[in-house]
Amino acid sequence: MENCLFCKLAAGEIPSAKVYEDETVYAFRDIAPQAPVHILVIPKTHIASVQELNGETIGLAAACLLAIPKIAAQEGLLPGGYRVVSNCGPDAGQTVGHLHFHILGGTRLNDRMA
Ligand code: 5GP
Ligand code: ZN
After folding, report:
1. Of 2, 46, 67, 114, which is least packed with CB atoms within 10 Å of its CB?
2. 75 neighbors 39 (Cβ within 8 angstroms)
């Protein structure tokens, strides 16, 4: 999608620190990390958020979710674990309108999530 920051990152038009890529998924380090490890996992195909998912597009989210445990292992987040977050809409603080899953880890995370 034109004028979408994460579409441009996935296409390599804007540089980013890649940590994982496959046919459907691109993952890169968050530019403003909120944990020692903070990675964003996105589908290469544009979709706005989990709210937009349907039977035709669920494969995009499934591919992201399947990539997450691979990335976690690659980043040394096991056996400690990690948190996966997808902000959806303004009340959740979504600032980029392209579906993304945050992977947060590398330390003991806050017990409170909101
Ligand atoms: P949201 O708030 O929409 O859930 O998450 C968007 C995330 O994208 C934020 O954590 C923000 O730091 C990150 N971000 C915004 N612009 C860029 C960028 O140009 N490059 C990278 N790597 N991350 C970005
Ligand atoms: Zn996009």
Report:
1. 114
2. yes
